[in-house]
Amino acid sequence: xxxxxxxxxxxxxxxxxxxxxxxxxxxxxxxxxxxxxxxxxxxxxxxxxxxxxxxxxxxxxxxxx
Length: 65
Prior knowledge:
It is a single chain. The protein contains two helices and four strands; from the N terminus they run H-E-E-H-E-E. It has helices at about 10, 30-35, and strands spanning about 20, 25-30, 50-55, 60. A hairpin with a 5-residue loop joins strand 1 (about 20) and strand 2 (about 25-30).
């Protein structure tokens, strides 16, 4: 993948700690970003702060929230 994501955070008003670029070239949002957003999108995100399990369609109990 040869796309340049260097201006991604400038276009989206994101902080550096809100995401990272995976070795495969994907933009991966961090738990901090999900908490800042304030809701779960139910997409099965890798760093879901809300405990959503895409396989069962349910939320795992999370005492931190």
